Amino acid sequence: MTSWCIRQEPQAIDDDMIQTMIDDMASKGEAGRLQKLEGLPLDEIYEIRFELKKILRIDHLWILPSLTKLGLNNNLIEKIENLDSLVHLKELNLSFNKILKIENLENLHNLEILNLFNNKIDLIENLENQKKLTIFSIGRNNICDRNNILYLRKFRQLKSLNMFENPCALDEDFQIFVATFLPQIDYYEYKRILKEEREQGLAKFMMMLNEVEENEKEENIKIAKKEKELADAALHAGSFVEYLGGSHLFDSMYENDVDGKLFLLFGDEVTELYDEFKEEFVNNCVKLFKFGQEQYVLRQEEIAQYENTVKTAKGEGQRQSIKMMEDFLEKKNEVFEIVKNLGKQLEEKIIDQDEYNEALQEISDSFNNDLHQIWKSSMKFEVTIFGQMEEVNQLFDISLTDLLNNFVEGAQAVFSELRSLQANYNENITEIMTRMVGPKGPNPDADIPPEAEHLFVDKDTLGNALGGTHDIHMQTIDAREDLLIGRARSWLSNIVDNLYENEIKTNRMKILEIKHFLEVQTSEFEELVMIDKELQNENLENNL
């Protein structure tokens, strides 16, 4: 087969190419030969370069998950792709390719250096997750709108920018434009930005800068609000009522409801009806939110009480077990001293061999009996504690299930009320709208906004629109109810299943610990006796 490295046609990165590049990076001499022979673990490769290889497509790099530096410059790459697994990447060089768009970098949160010099990119975009970006080179591309660099204002750690030979960069004042609107960067085209350039830019672009900063304030308020919503959602996720503390559910009903929004254009009567509907709907959501928080506290108290009960019961058992082991180890030390003294008595001929063997057998029987008693006592305790925990777990399961059922029933009652409010609103809005249409179209005296005229061609069209908006609202309510109940049931199931699984694992581990302890004690005693007997045999041989 022809090796990839002598092919002339464009190609994708494959395993053979990667392995060849790894071999090329190996140390010289004997060290390099051994490295190639033994192979370098793929997860220990932190840097690799594929330069001048006529690469058309990026692929297979998922086998190098530890990469921090990747060179793909001077190839034929048209699309950034298949880099998702390189989450540790800090430096990426894609210069001198044929890339049309910045994309598919979402997972590269640690990227600090990005080189896209000499490609065909016309827009700086899709870098929201590269908050650590420090050096960005996108010179010699097709960026025409100088305002596109405003996108980079959000990158607080950006220190160096290169826009060389982009169409927008050919403007005489572009460098001072950059100096003004990107105050965080220190270098443009690898030259330090001068204080004078910033001052010139402020004088020339002050009005535009003020406008940009004002727009950013509004945008930052929206971002802060969104971040707070996400933080609140994370905080309240355990209560299953996230996003229900305000108008989020109500607003989401209208988010994709085009016809429903059009019906709101029909004057004071509709506005009053809508406002009343929204107020009651949101009040019920807030009611559910508060109820969810209260129920969450009750569940947490139940869990804390359970954990305290288990801790107390197991703590007392552990203390008894430790006391039993300590008493045995103390007695074991005494027994070992007796065995050693017995050996000395035999050596000094205070006792004869038969007396020694008889005494040793008696000590051995007593020691083994003590071990057996510990085994019986420990196993009795483990069986008892396992039974107690089983009973405690069953009671906890029942209590937690009751609490969760109370919460679910309360939530279902609120969702039922929300559906009732929606049905009532739909009834009223339908009554208002049907007054405006006759058998052959809109009534002559009906004041219909131009945007909504297509809904009033005839009664069937209007009925379909009203039915459609009602269905959207109902589906939104149902989906949120299903989400709440599903997550609550799943949480309970996981808690209960883990209780029983963990108890069985703990019990088995404890039995293995006891078994291991006893085996060690038996082994140590047998070893002591064996050593003592060997010494006696040596002495006997010496005497002979």
UniProtKB/TrEMBL annotation:
<keyword id="KW-0966">Cell projection</keyword>
<keyword id="KW-0963">Cytoplasm</keyword>
<keyword id="KW-0677">Repeat</keyword>
<dbReference type="InterPro" id="IPR001611">
    <property type="entry name" value="Leu-rich_rpt"/>
</dbReference>
<dbReference type="InterPro" id="IPR050576">
    <property type="entry name" value="Cilia_flagella_integrity"/>
</dbReference>
<keyword id="KW-0282">Flagellum</keyword>
<keyword id="KW-0433">Leucine-rich repeat</keyword>
<dbReference type="GO" id="GO:0005929">
    <property type="term" value="C:cilium"/>
</dbReference>
<dbReference type="Pfam" id="PF14580">
    <property type="entry name" value="LRR_9"/>
</dbReference>
<dbReference type="InterPro" id="IPR032675">
    <property type="entry name" value="LRR_dom_sf"/>
</dbReference>
<keyword id="KW-0175">Coiled coil</keyword>
<keyword id="KW-0969">Cilium</keyword>
<protein>
    <recommendedName>
        <fullName>Dynein axonemal assembly factor 1 homolog</fullName>
    </recommendedName>
</protein>
<comment type="similarity">
    <text>Belongs to the DRC3 family.</text>
</comment>
<keyword id="KW-0206">Cytoskeleton</keyword>
<comment type="function">
    <text>Cilium-specific protein required for cilia structures.</text>
</comment>
